[in-house]
C-alpha cells in the first residue's frame, strides 16, 4: 500500500489484459446452488452475450424485459488484434445523463457491481472520463469518479419495492472529456438473510453499502471463481500492523451449521473459513504472549462503516479453550467471544459478528484481536468493511441527489457542489486494484513469457490525452456552483484570523489553517491584503473557472469570500508543508526525502502541470512553478512518509487580487530564479515558460539547494542553480552537486536520464524545450530505471 504500487500501475501498459488472461486460464466455473431471484448481468456496449465465470452476460444494445436504457449513449470496443470477447472488451459510453431501468423481481438486499475497464479506443481513453453514478433516484454511488485502473465497484443495496430500479450515469459537464462509461453491470438478489435489516440501531433498508475491503484473513486471493456469490477476497498481510505477531493457519475441515442456519457458504465461502490468522504465540523463553494482533485499514472519514467479522475455530484442540476479544479503533466491541459456546460445541463451525462503526474523523480503522485470558490465543478468518451512505444518501462527500426534480429551474437532478478532494476514495480503489492487479500479474508472469521491461510505460493512461471524445460544448450552466463562503463562516473557521493559525505568508498576505463549520473540512484560507473593487467581477469569473479544475495533483479551490471588499480564497488543506521545506530549510524535523520519494513527488507535480496545460480548451499557464508551490500531504491510509504532491497557486495569476500586487498581468510575473529568460526578454508567455521553471524545480530536487543561493558567494556562477547545474551537467560533473543526503542512492542510469530531462527543460529557446507530456513520460521512465537499478543492487548482494 504505497506509492510504488500506484506508479507501477500507471506505468504498465494495458493492465487489464492480465485480467483477461487470468479469465482464460480457468474457463470452467464453480458449480453453485445459489440462484438469485433477480439476476441481471449486462455486457455493456455490446450486441453479443458473453460467458464469464460460467455466467452469461447479456448485451445491453437492445432493451429486454430485464432492463431499458434511455439517454444519449454510444457503444465502443477495445482496439485489439485478437478479439477475445469478454466483458472487458466493450463499454457503454454515456454522452449525457443516461439511465438503466431494471425490472427487479425481488425486494431486500441486492448485490450491485459496476465493472470499469478503462481501455483506449480509437477516439480516446476511457480513463479520462469523469462522472457520477446515482441509484434509485436518491443515492449517490460515485461522483467526480474516473477509473484509471481496472476496477470493480461492489455494493450491497436495499431495494424497497419490486419495481423499476434506476441506475443513472451522469458525465461531469465541466470536465475535459464529458462522458461516463461502464463495461458491465451485475444486479442480483443477495443470499437470503445475508444482512439483517437493522444492525446497531442503523436502519439498513434505506442504505447502500460500498465494499471497501473484503479480506480472506490468512488466506489467498479469492476470485469470483472461488466464491458462490462471485466476490473477490484479498489477503490481509499488507494491513497487519505487526506481521510478526500473526501466524496463519489452514484447515479444510469446515462444518457449516445445518438446517439452513447462518452462515451458509454464501455468507463466506469455505476458503475464507478454512484459513485464519492467529497469535504467533511464543513457546519458550521469558517473552510474554500478552499482545494483540492489529490490522489497519484505510477508510473514509465522516462515514459509518459496517464491519462483518468471520470466525471459525480450526486451531483449538478442544472446542471450549478459545476465548477472545475484538477491538475496533481500540474499543472493545466483542468481549469474551467463545466459539465453543457460540457453536454449541460443534467444532470447526463458522460464525460471524457484525458491528457498525460510527463516523469518525480518522481515515484509518484499526481492528484488533486479543485473548481474554492471559497468554491465550485469538483468531480471525475473514473481514468485510463496508462504507454506508451518509444521511443525505451519498457515498461521496458533498454530492447528493437533488429532490426537486422538475422544479423548473434546472434540467438536471444533480447539484454538484465543489468539494473536498476524493483522494481517500481514489486511494482505496487504487489499493484494491493494485492488490488484485499485482497478484494477477504474478500469475500471468508464471504462465506467460517475461514481458520486456522496456515495453512498460508506453501507454500510461495519464499521458497522451486524446482529443476526439472531448465535448467542448458542455457547459457548467447546468450545475450550480455554490462557492461563496460567508465571512462569518471564515471568521469562525480561523478563530477570527488568529495569528496562531497562520501557516504561510507572502506578498498577497497570510494563509490560515481553518476548519469549515458546515462540514468539518480542513481548509487553508488565503487572505489578500489589498483589494480593489474594480477587480471583483473578474475575480468571480476566475474563481468560477478555477473551481471547476479538479485533479488529483492540483490543490482544489473550495470557495471564496468577497464580503466587505475582502478577498478570501479557500483551498483544500495540505497537511505536510511544501516541497521546499522538505528539501532544505524551513521545515524542521523532516527526514530527508529519498530519491524515490523525490521522483514520485516530481511525477505528481508534473501530472498536475500537464493537466493544466492540456486539460482545457485554451490551456492554463501556471506562471509560478516553484518548490514552495508544490504542497505535500500524507497519503491517506498510506504509510508515513508516503507523500502525495499537489501543485498550488495556479490560474489566479492573471488577475490582480491574488496578490495585492500593484503590477498588472502584462508585467513579467514569477519568482526570481525560476523565470524563463526568453519570457523575461520578450514578455511572451507560453506553457514552455512553465516547463523552464519545472526544470529548475528538478535540479532543486536533485541538488537540495535553492534556485537562488546567495550563500555561495564565493563564486558568482553558483548563485543561479539553473545556470550552474546545466553547466555542471554539460561538463559531465552533475554527480558532484547532488544533494549529500542522496549520495550513493542514485543509480547512474536514472541520474543521467534525470539530468538530461532537466537540462532539456532549461533550453534557451522555448520551442526546443519538451512539452510536459514528454517530461512526465521521462520521469516515469526514470522511476522505473531507479527501481530496476535497486533490484539489481539487491540481487548482487544476495
Ligand atoms: C480459486 O479458484 C482457482 C480457479 O478455479 C483455483 O485454482 C484456486 O485453487 C482456488 N483457490 C482456493 C483457495 O480455493
Ligand atoms: C489490546 O488492544 C486493546 C485496545 O487497544 C487494549 O485495550 C488492550 O490492552 C490490548 N491488549 C494487550 C494484551 O495488549
Ligand atoms: C442513506 O441514505 C438514505 C436517504 O436516501 C437515508 O434515509 C439513510 O438514513 C442513509 N443511511 C445512513 C446510514 O445514514
From TrEMBL:
KW Membrane (keyword) present: yes
CDD domains: STKc_IRAK
Matches recorded under InterPro entries: Kinase-like_dom_sf, Malectin-like_Carb-bd_dom, Prot_kinase_dom, Protein_kinase_ATP_BS, Ser-Thr/Tyr_kinase_cat_dom, Ser/Thr_kinase_AS
Residues annotated to bind ATP: 526
SMART domains: S_TKc
Keywords, comma-separated and alphabetical: ATP-binding, Glycoprotein, Kinase, Membrane, Nucleotide-binding, Serine/threonine-protein kinase, Signal, Transferase, Transmembrane, Transmembrane helix
GO-annotated molecular function: ATP binding; protein kinase activity; protein serine/threonine kinase activity
Protein known as: Kinase family protein
Organism: Zostera marina
Amino acid at each position: 500500500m504505497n506509492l510504488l504500487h500506484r506508479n507501477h500501475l500507471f506505468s504498465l501498459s494495458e493492465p487489464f489484459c492480465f485480467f483477461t488472461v487470468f479469465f482464460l486460464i480457468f474457463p470452467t466455473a464453480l458449480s453453485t446452488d445459489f440462484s438469485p431471484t433477480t439476476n441481471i448481468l449486462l455486457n455493456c456496449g455490446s450486441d453479443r452475450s458473453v460467458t464469464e465465470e460460467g455466467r452469461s452476460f447479456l448485451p445491453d444494445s437492445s432493451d429486454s424485459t430485464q432492463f431499458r436504457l434511455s439517454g444519449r449513449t454510444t457503444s465502443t470496443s477495445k482496439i485489439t488484434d485478437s478479439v477475445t470477447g469478454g466483458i472487458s472488451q466493450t463499454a457503454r459510453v454515456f454522452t449525457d445523463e443516461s439511465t438503466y431501468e431494471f425490472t427487479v423481481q425481488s425486494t431486500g438486499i441486492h448485490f450491485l457491481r459496476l465493472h470499469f475497464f478503462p481501455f483506449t479506443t480509437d477516439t480516446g481513453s476511457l480513463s479520462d472520463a469523469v462522472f457520477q453514478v446515482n441509484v434509485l433516484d436518491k443515492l449517490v454511488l460515485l461522483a467526480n469518479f474516473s477509473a484509471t485502473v481496472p476496477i470493480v465497484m461492489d455494493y450491497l443495496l436495499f431495494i424497497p419495492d419490486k419495481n423499476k430500479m434506476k441506475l443513472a450515469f451522469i458525465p461531469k459537464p465541466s470536465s475535459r472529456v464529458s462522458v461516463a462509461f461502464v463495461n458491465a453491470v451485475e444486479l442480483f438478489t443477495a443470499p437470503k438473510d445475508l444482512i439483517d435489516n437493522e444492525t446497531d440501531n442503523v436502519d439498513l433498508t434505506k442504505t447502500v453499502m460500498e465494499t471497501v475491503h473484503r479480506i480472506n484473513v490468512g488466506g489467498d486471493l479469492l476470485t469470483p471463481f472461488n466464491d458462490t456469490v462471485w466476490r473477490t477476497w484479498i489477503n490481509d498481510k499488507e494491513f497487519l500492523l505487526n506481521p510478526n505477531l500473526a501466524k496463519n493457519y489452514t484447515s479444510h475441515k469446515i462444518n457449516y451449521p445445518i438446517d439452513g442456519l447462518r452462515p451458509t457458504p454464501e455468507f463466506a465461502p469455505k476458503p475464507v473459513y478454512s484459513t485464519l490468522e492467529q497469535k504467533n504465540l511464543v513457546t519458550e523463553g521469558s517473552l510474554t504472549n500478552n499482545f494483540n494482533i492489529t490490522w489497519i485499514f484505510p477508510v473514509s472519514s465522516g462515514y459509518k462503516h459496517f464491519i462483518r467479522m468471520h470466525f471459525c475455530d480450526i486451531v483449538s484442540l478442544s472446542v471450549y479453550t478459545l476465548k477472545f476479544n475484538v477491538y475496533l479503533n481500540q474499543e472493545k466491541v466483542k468481549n469474551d467471544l467463545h466459539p465453543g459456546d457460540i457453536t454449541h460445541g460443534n467444532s470447526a463451525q463458522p460464525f460471524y459478528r457484525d458491528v457498525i462503526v460510527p463516523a469518525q474523523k480518522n481515515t484509518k480503522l484499526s481492528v484488533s484481536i486479543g485473548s481474554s485470558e492471559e497468554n491465550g490465543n485469538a483468531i480471525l478468518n475473514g473481514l468485510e468493511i463496508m462504507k454506508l451512505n451518509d444521511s443525505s444518501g451519498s457515498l461521496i462527500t458533498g454530492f447528493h441527489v437533488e429532490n426537486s426534480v422538475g422544479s423548473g429551474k434546472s434540467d438536471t437532478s444533480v447539484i454538484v457542489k465543489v468539494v473536498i478532494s476524493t483522494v481517500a476514495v481514489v486511494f482505496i480503489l487504487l489499493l484494491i486494484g493494485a492488490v488484485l492487479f499485482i497478484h494477477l500479474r504474478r500469475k500471468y508472469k508464471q504462465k506467460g513469457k517475461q514481458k520486456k521491461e522496456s515495453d512498460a510505460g508506453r501507454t500510461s493512461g495519464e499521458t497522451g490525452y486524446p482529443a476526439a471524445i472531448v465535448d467542448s460544448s458542455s457547459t457548467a450552466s447546468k450545475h450550480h456552483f455554490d462557492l461563496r463562503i460567508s465571512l462569518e463562516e471564515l471568521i469562525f473557521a480561523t478563530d477570527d484570523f488568529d495569528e496562531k493559525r497562520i501557516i504561510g505568508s507572502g506578498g498577497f498576505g497570510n494563509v490560515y489553517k481553518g476548519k469549515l463549520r458546515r462540514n468539518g473540512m480542513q481548509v487553508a484560507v488565503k487572505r489578500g491584503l489589498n483589494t480593489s473593487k474594480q477587480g471583483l467581477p473578474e475575480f468571480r469569473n476566475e474563481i468560477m473557472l478555477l473551481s471547476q479544475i479538479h485533479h488529483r495533483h492540483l490543490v482544489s479551490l473550495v470557495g471564496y469570500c468577497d464580503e466587505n471588499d475582502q478577498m478570501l480564497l479557500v483551498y483544500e488543506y495540505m497537511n505536510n508543508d511544501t516541497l521546499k521545506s522538505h528539501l532544505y530549510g524551513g521545515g524542521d524535523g523532516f527526514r530527508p526525502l529519498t530519491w524515490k520519494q523525490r521522483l514520485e513527488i516530481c511525477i505528481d507535480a508534473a501530472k498536475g502541470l500537464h493537466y493544466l496545460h492540456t486539460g482545457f480548451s485554451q490551456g492554463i499557464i501556471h506562471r509560478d512553478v516553484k518548490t514552495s508551490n508544490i504542497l505535500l500531504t500524507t497519503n491517506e491510509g498510506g504509510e508515513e512518509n508516503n507523500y502525495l504532491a499537489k501543485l498550488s497557486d495556479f490560474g489566479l495569476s492573471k488577475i490582480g487580487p491574488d496578490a495585492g500586487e500593484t503590477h498588472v498581468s502584462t508585467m513579467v510575473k514569477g519568482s526570481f530564479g525560476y523565470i524563463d529568460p526568453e519570457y523575461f526578454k520578450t514578455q511572451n508567455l507560453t506553457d514552455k515558460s512553465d516547463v523552464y521553471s519545472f526544470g529548475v524545480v528538478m535540479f532543486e530536487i536533485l541538488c537540495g539547494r535553492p534556485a537562488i543561493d546567495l550563500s555561495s558567494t564565493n563564486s558568482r556562477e553558483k548563485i543561479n542553480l539553473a545556470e550552474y547545474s546545466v553547466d555542471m551537467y554539460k561538463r559531465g560533473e552533475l554527480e558532484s552537486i547532488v544533494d549529500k543526503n542522496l549520495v550513493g542512492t542514485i543509480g547512474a542510469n536514472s541520474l543521467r536520464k534525470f539530468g538530461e530531462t532537466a537540462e532539456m527543460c532549461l533550453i534557451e529557446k522555448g520551442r526546443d524545450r519538451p512539452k510536459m507530456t514528454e517530461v512526465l513520460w521521462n520521469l516515469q521512465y526514470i522511476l522505473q530505471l531507479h527501481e530496476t537499478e535497486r533490484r539489481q543492487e539487491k540481487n548482487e548482494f544476495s
